[in-house]
Description:
By secondary structure, chain A is of the alpha/beta class. Chain A has helices at residues 10-21, 35-44, 55-62, 76-86, 102-113, 129-142, 173-176, 179-189, 290-305, 313-331, and strands at 2-6, 26-31, 50-52, 66-69, 91-95, 119-122, 145-153, 194-200, 210-216, 222-228, 238-245, 248-253, 256-261, 272-275. Chain B has a single domain (3-79, 127-294), classed as TIM Barrel (Alpha-Beta Barrel).
Amino acid sequence: MNISVIGLGKMGLLHAAIVNSLPDANVTSVCEKDLFLSSAARAVLPKNITVYRDVKKMIPEERPDAVFVTTPIDTHVSIVEDLLKTETNLSVFVEKPLAVSHEQARIACELASRSRGAHMVGFQKRYSPVFQKAQELLKEAVDAPLFFRAYCLSSDVLREGSAWRSKKGSGGVLLDSAPHLLDILIWFFGEPTSVMAVKKHVYSHEVEDYVHAILSFESGLQGHVDACWSVSNYRLPEFLLEIHGRNGMLTVTDDFVKFTPGKQTGGNGGGQTYHRQSFHTPVPFLLTDPEYTLEDTAFLDAIRTRTTPETNFVQAAKVNALIDRILENAEQGGHKSR
Amino acid sequence: MKTLLIGDNSFIGVSHLSQERARERTERLDVKSIVEIIETAVSCGATGYTFSTHPVNLQILSALQDSGKIESTFGLYPVLPYAQGYVRLANEKGMRGLVDETLSRLSLLDRTKAIFDSGISALRLDPLGVMKTYLDMELKSYLNAKTRNARLRSVLLHEVITDLCLGLRDAHLLDAFAQHIREKYHASPGFVTYNIVRFVELFRKAGLTTNDVVIMAPFNSVGYQMSPSKHSCEACLPSLSESNVIAMSIMAGGYLKLDEAIDYIRTLPNLSGIAVGVSSKEHARNTFTRLRDGVLGRTDTGASQAGQRKI
């Protein structure tokens, strides 16, 4: 299988290396619009990988089986349009989130619905054994979640940024840092029925640095989310989801999932913790975390078996819909909206 | 086995068990207490320090120099680049901004090279030259700060870069790094990797020697970070004739107990050393005493102590 990668940022390099290491897959071309970065890529990458600056030139010349789109968020959908209008049945992987808005995401979904290729968005936490165990425990142990609190915090923006992440229409903490958390909430609980939110600028002028949102669900479940990329002392972005139910509390982070049974249900309050290390997740090639290899493997498998991968464009569009609702509500002053 | 290294994860806020724990430790540990931890570890058998080019390590190396308690046999094993620092810069300024800033730092380092006035030309004409100048820049301040007695045993490439090259099957860059470290620093080139089997395969396929190369890779009883499998990584060890493999993550990032780690490590052939992190003087005393008594010398295969010349 011949693979092309569009966009040579850190996620482009990561996917290129992983997918190139998987059986029967070869990265044969990459596309980087920036003259400087494409020159660097030409100088450094192995000679069997052709470097382009124009997607419209690369696709007809290379005729890849699949393409990874790892460019800034505001370019995702226009690239998907170019790709699927040129090669209707091309398989396309897009780094998360799918689009800058739900309206844009729907354009990508519409194009994908007319294609026989596989179309996937990089919500790799769904492939993490920790989150898979959390979902299992949520069903089996928690019983009727009552409320939750969740956050994603990082020290990524501690001064005004100059990259696309800090530009209106392509960035902000909700689009850049919160999609994983919102995707997990939708995966666990479905789409919320109502949203109330506030947002704040700390360092960025064009985009929000902090968002607080209260989400309500059909089941009666409520919870709140805090997303901020301007807190001090977070070497890595951190993620926490704490779910309280009739039978106890479930705590989920990137590193572990813990279920603490309630004493009234016969538990001793001690709880059980499942660390990342306790899950046996060998992968053929490991770069940072195994979930990246597992999601790329799932994408290639979906292409081979002509099945729909997890997470497909339609699932990913729900995250964009929720981001839009939160931001719209925050703009309106945080009044409850459906 | 001859080498027992102190790792710096606890000192720079890395924990594979929980980020909260990592933050708590960095708040608790100042440079003075870190130096005391290192000195305690050394008194209990530690033979060297492996560290990333995180700014706090500049202060640690300077403080070690001032304390004057480091013996001439103490080895330094810097790992570079400090990947998380670059990820943050890329998030803030974009990939192009990251490269621009790095090249401008290179220009400041070496003003005689007008070639850096045009980064594109520099990369086109001599990409490996740019890489070497970058390595020199990254290492320079750490080598200046190091204690006079300590010896540079190896310079290691961070696993993110090593494994990117492995995934792209790019032996050329790895070889260029190795040659530069040998020629300029008279030290062993080193590579941190989660994919030791693939590393050895790529090196051999490219006709490169692993004899004087330090390979730092995870080895633990639960197979954490051991790709493609625990069994394959273990099976790779006997095939390395003059092993310079240093096992890391022997407690799977704090998940396993030290006794479990020692029992497992004692079953492995051809290891030249272990790297392990500690977060207090008591922790250092307990860990390094037990490692010294439990594993040091036990599986010594007579591996060459390459790259020990003092620079």
